[in-house]
Amino acid sequence: MIKSKFYLIRGDGKPIYVGFTNRPIKQRFSEHKADKDFSGYEKVTIEKLDELDYEFTWNEDILYKNANEVSVREAQLIVEYRTQGSKYQKASDGGQVWTYEKWFVRTNKDNPKFLGVSGVEIEEWIGDERAVDRYLKDFVNGMKDPVDVYLGSFVGNMKDPVDQYLSSFVGNMKDPIDVYLGNFVNSMRDPIDIYLHNFVNNMHEPADQYLINFVGNMEKIVDKQIIV
After folding, report:
1. Fewest CB atoms within 10 A around its CB: which of 32, 87, 112, 122?
2. Order of strands, edge to edge, in the sheet holding 44-54?
3. d(C-alpha 5, C-alpha 52), whole Å
4. How far is 44 from 86, CA to CA, in rounded Å?
5. Do 201 and 184 share a domain, yes or no?
6. Contact yes or no for 10/19 (Cβ under 8 A)
7. Within this chain, do residues 19 and 127 fall inside the same structural domain, yes or no?
8. Are 10 and 117 found together in one domain?
């Protein structure tokens, strides 16, 4: 049994999207929340509106007739809940009704693999295949090219050579006034220290001073005697 379930999404209580799915409504709602931007609403909810059930068939004419009925019912509900002006409704792909089922019947109706398989078993198989297909699409969409990741990290950590040079240059610069005052202060000596240093350097030991004076006076006496 192919069950086409019709649902309504509300944003803060206002109808904003009508859709249908052959899968669980909660699963479809999770996909919508991942694919659509509902950030403008504080609360987004989903509710079931209707359901149309069909037996699986390999007959493409009947398949397309059933799919058309689903499309007509969806359009009726869109008008009923007045979501045709919603940006979410406009963004949805029109005419995509039972796409997977149509593809499956068209490509496998003569496949001996499904010879004698009941409609229920085929429906289960289709459901599993669709789930795998969705998983692979989400997986691939979430992948990042390793080269892009590497280049992104590499470029993000690069610094402009000029900026790097200027940063180092400015970081090592010193204020000229600070430099001058630093040198001036380092060169200054305490006046008392200078005076004491000179005083001490010019001092003589008393005994030394006495001998110097004694020898000096002796030389003067000898010089006088020679002159006389």
Report:
1. 112
2. 14-21, 2-11, 44-54
3. 7
4. 14
5. no
6. no
7. yes
8. yes
Between CA 162 and CA 159 the distance in angstroms is 9
Based on the number of CB atoms within 10 Å of its own CB, is 108 exposed (0-12), middle (13-18) or buried (19 or more)? Answer: middle
Nearest of 35, 31, 37 to residue 11 by alpha carbon: 37
For the whole prediction, is pTM greater than 0.85?
A: no
Structural domain tally of the chain? 3
> Are 51 and 20 spatial neighbours (Cβ–Cβ below 8 Å)?
no
The pair of three-digit structure tokens given for residue 211, joined into one six-digit string: 């001998």
Measured CA to CA, the distance from residue 193 to residue 186 in angstroms comes to: 15
Give the dihedral of Cα atoms 64, 66, 120, 25; nearest 10 deg. 110
pLDDT tens by residue, 5-47: 999 999 999 999 999 999 999 999 999 999 999 999 999 999 9
Per-residue confidence (pLDDT) for residue 223, from 0 to 100? 56
Cα–Cα distance for residue pair 121/59, rounded to 1 Å: 17
Show the domain range for 21. Answer: 2-143
- Integer-rounded Cα Rg, in Å, for the chain is 50
| Among the listed residues 61, 55, 60, the one whose alpha carbon sits nearest the alpha carbon of residue 109 | 60
